[in-house]
From TrEMBL:
Membrane spanning stretches: none
Protein species of origin: Parapedobacter pyrenivorans
Protein name: Peptide-binding protein
Gene3D superfamilies the record matches: 2.30.42.10, Single-stranded right-handed beta-helix, Pectin lyase-like
Pfam family, one: PDZ_2
Every PDZ domain range: 708-791
Classification via PANTHER family: RIGHT HANDED BETA HELIX DOMAIN-CONTAINING PROTEIN, SECRETED PROTEIN-RELATED
Length: 801
């Protein structure tokens, strides 16, 4: 499977781009184009011309199908005129409706037009006052409402605790959400939901309330959304869809028995002027074929998809020993396709996934899209377990060595390959589900993920769930504001619990030694991560976990969380910049063959349980001689170099090394700072930029300088007077000057006048040392601080938010 880009591939890609812009159609001498028009006020009995358009996409679709069945081989172009189209059932395109490479079939919005395909139904409301705050309307014929939209946003189902913007996770949570004293108030909680974090904060779990038992306690079902099962988190949980919790502006509740919708308006809302839309469908367009009879050459362009129902209770299919369960659906589903895609479209206000590329697919193109405010993942490429040799589905499962299929690669072609997710702006996803990603890849091969901007996500921006079958190229992405609601994860995250992997480390050591060729049975091609900018403030910028193997990682700028390699084999990491952080090797194998070289690091290497150091951990560039000396105690970095990188404008995010910088002389190669993220003007104008933290690690503070840290003001202990006032035996530590009420430090119990002497057993003789210690340990989600107060040492835990 050689997937390196060649000239033919480049021409094909250019053709797709030109086709998406309408240029190719003008320049081409190909087949004739038949165009059908659709308008919200059209009629399905019309001719489909611009002056007599069809009234639905379904009518145009039927016309194209009839023409193709009659033998037409020309190109078809279905143009939707501006407006909102309410889709009553998913539009399913089959193999008989396929286009060809020379005559693709496009479904697109009119140039410059605003076209919405809605999976909802507009409600006919007649509001009556229920009490002084809440209004109600009877909805005859409406059996269920799982999602409600109005005013361009998703409305909040009645919940406890009430939602507060900016509070993570879930917009608020409460330990007493399931307290008996609260449950007893609920007359009929059937149909309510419990949303909770995994006990390890490895994503979220969801439960449907089925009633109360004889003792008055809730009965419920669910929790299958995470493939690493656990009890629900003890405090991070909330309940929704319970009438008695309808007590805050913007909340709603639908009583199925009475078919009555209740709504608590926000201040100054004129609800009689608002258009309320109830979600009805989980999918809007589906392209469904098979390997033998694929759907080919159908492209969707310029359309906005909205108002799908939440699907979190259907997220239960286990994936190969990753932490994920999935539901194979999305607003757009590609299943059994070749050369099909979604371009320059918008996905917003969705209850579940946006685009799901499932099972057999080849050369899928998901490009130029805005994906925001959705309940699940943005883009998923996920193959079938039927393509896996010797599959194991749960972390603790394994196939005995004597029964293992040792033929490399997939067993069948039932997986996505050679697809691309390119130039997409992805933000505010996982509004409901928390085990999600901007781009998710599992059981797939040769997926290109390039020039995407991904931010404000509850877990990873880009996730690869296993090594099967590698060959992916992750490049030129800008990924930040990640792992906002979970823990122990990365802006880029991967697992590699492939067929050789065993949950018992002693068994793994033995298998790797006796059968080294098994390591790459699934990860048959190298996955490349290059030329990206990553930032994770609650984990690692790049996190290769649990057996992730066969990676080349180079030319990346990591802004906050550093880079982690846990277990796994054949990872080559070079020429990366790890800003204000460093290298985190965890639990390596004896013959990992890992290489970490010529990277700029700003902390000592933070090893955990390392007895074997791979092929090379040397020739790296340190900005602080003390960090190099600490690292050399592990018997590595004999040729490590200390110097000043002389960044051009680090404060503005330009980490180009100036001409003559020490590290350039020693082999570091400058990384372009201009190519991260989306490239089209439409998306660039909307995209945010990552925070650039001042370079405190490896720098120096002048006497009297202060720093803001988790809401408080700190400075170095510097004078005999400060030492005397604190009662310390020496001048060292980070002195706390001010602690505003409500700040994270205040909530942890830190007080003005405290001196922080260590962080997670790492001495913090000054503020720089404290920052370094935080960088090394913040992935844990908390810091354990040794604080000097009233002439004695006390230990305080600071939860990171």
């Amino acid at each position: 499977m050689n997937r390196h880009i060649n000239f033919t591939d480049a021409i094909t890609w250019l053709r797709h781009v030109l086709l998406g812009c309408g240029v190719w159609a003008l320049a081409s001498c190909g087949p004739d184009v038949t165009t059908y028009y659709v308008a919200p006020m059209g009629a399905d009995s019309a001719a489909g011309t611009k002056d007599r358009p069809f009234g639905s996409l379904a009518a145009a679709k039927r016309m194209v199908t009839e023409k193709k069945a009659a033998g037409s081989t020309g190109r078809f172009d279905v143009v939707l005129l501006p407006g909102t189209y309410f889709v009553s059932e998913p539009l399913i395109f089959g193999p008989a409706e396929s286009g060809t490479t020379d005559a693709p079939y496009t479904i697109r919005a009119e140039a410059g037009g605003d076209v919405v395909l809605s999976a909802g139904v507009p409600l006919q409301v007649d509001w009556q006052q229920h009490d002084g705050r809440i209004w109600k309307t009877h909805l005859a014929g409406v059996d269920s409402i799982e999602g409600l939209y109005a005013g361009g946003k998703a409305l909040t189902r009645a919940r406890y605790p009430n939602a507060v913007e900016g509070v993570y996770p879930f917009g608020g949570f409460a330990a007493d959400a399931l307290a008996p004293a609260r449950i007893v108030r609920w007359t009929n909680p059937v149909g309510g939901y419990i949303h909770a974090m995994h006990s390890g904060r490895w994503g979220g779990m969801h439960y449907r309330i089925t009633g109360k038992d004889a003792g008055g306690m809730l009965t419920y079902e669910g929790g299958w959304q995470n493939n690493r099962p656990s009890a629900m988190h003890g405090t991070q949980r909330f309940v929704e869809n319970i009438f008695e919790e309808l007590d805050a502006p913007g909340e709603w509740y639908f009583d199925r028995m009475e078919r009555m919708l209740y709504y608590f308006p926000e201040e100054d809302q004129e609800i009689e002027r608002m258009d309320f839309i109830a979600a009805q469908l989980e999918s809007i367009i589906q392209l469904k074929g098979s390997e033998d009879h694929p759907v080919t050459d159908i492209y969707i362009e310029g359309i906005t998809f909205q108002h799908t129902v939440p699907t979190f209770m259907k997220t239960r299919e286990q994936l190969m020993r990753s932490d994920w369960s999935i539901y194979r659906s999305g607003a757009v589903l590609l299943d059994g396709t070749e050369r099909c895609g979604v371009r320059n479209s918008t996905f917003s206000l969705l209850g579940g996934n946006a685009v799901f590329v499932s099972n057999y697919n080849r050369q899928s193109e998901i490009s130029g899209n805005l994906i925001e405010y959705i309940g699940g993942s943005a883009i998923a490429f996920v193959g079938s377990a039927d393509a896996v040799r010797s599959p194991s589905f749960r972390y603790e499962e394994f196939v005995p060595a004597g029964e293992l299929d040792t033929i490399p690669g997939p067993k069948s072609n039932a997986y996505p390959a050679d697809g691309v997710a390119e130039n997409n702006l992805i933000r505010y996803i996982g509004m409901i589900e928390k085990q999600v990603a901007g781009v998710q890849i599992q059981l797939a091969a040769g997926i290109g993920v390039r020039h995407n901007t991904i931010y404000h996500v509850p877990r990873s921006g880009i996730n690869i769930g296993d090594g099967a079958w590698g060959g992916h190229v992750i490049e030129y992405n800008d990924v930040f504001q990640t792992v906002l609601e979970t823990g122990d994860h990365g802006a880029f995250n991967s697992w590699g619990r492939d067929r050789f992997w065993h949950p018992n480390r002693a068994v793994m050591d033995s298998l790797a030694k006796v059968h080294p060729n098994w390591i790459l049975l699934d990860a048959v091609e190298t996955t490349i991560i290059r030329n990206n900018r990553f930032r994770c403030d609650h984990g690692w910028d790049i996190d290769l976990d649990d057996g992730s193997s066969n990676y080349a990682i180079y030319n990346n700028v990591c802004l906050a969380g550093g880079l982690k390699l846990r277990e796994g084999f054949y990872r080559k990491v070079y020429n990366n910049i790890l800003v204000n952080n460093g290298f985190h090797p965890h639990v390596w194998f004896e013959s990992s063959h890992d290489v970490f070289t010529r990277n700029i690091v700003m902390t000592a290497h933070q090893q955990i349980q390392i007895k074997h150091w791979g092929d090379t951990v040397d020739h790296n560039f340190f900005v602080d001689s003390a960090d190099l000396e600490v690292t050399r105690k592990y018997g590595i970095e004999r040729n490590g170099v200390v110097g000043d990188p002389r960044f051009v404008i680090a404060s503005a995010g330009d980490f180009t090394l100036r001409e003559g910088a020490d590290f350039l002389k020693d082999g570091f190669v400058n990384i372009s700072m201009d190519d991260f993220g989306v490239v089209t003007e439409r998306l660039k104008a909307m995209a945010d930029m990552p925070e650039i933290t001042p370079l405190t690690v490896g720098g120096n503070f002048a006497i009297g300088d202060v720093v803001q840290w988790h809401g408080g003001t700190l400075k170095n202990m510097e004078t005999l007077g400060e030492q005397s006032a604190a009662g310390l035996s020496e001048i060292r530590g980070a002195l706390v000057l001010e602690i505003p009420d409500g700040s994270p430090l205040a909530r942890a119990g830190i007080r003005a006048g405290d001196v922080i002497l260590s962080c997670d057993e790492t001495a913090t003789d000054d503020v720089i040392a404290l920052r370094k210690a935080e960088a090394s340990h913040k992935w844990k989600g908390r810091l354990v601080l040794d604080v000097w107060r009233n002439q004695q040492l006390t230990q305080i835990e600071l939860r990171l938010e």
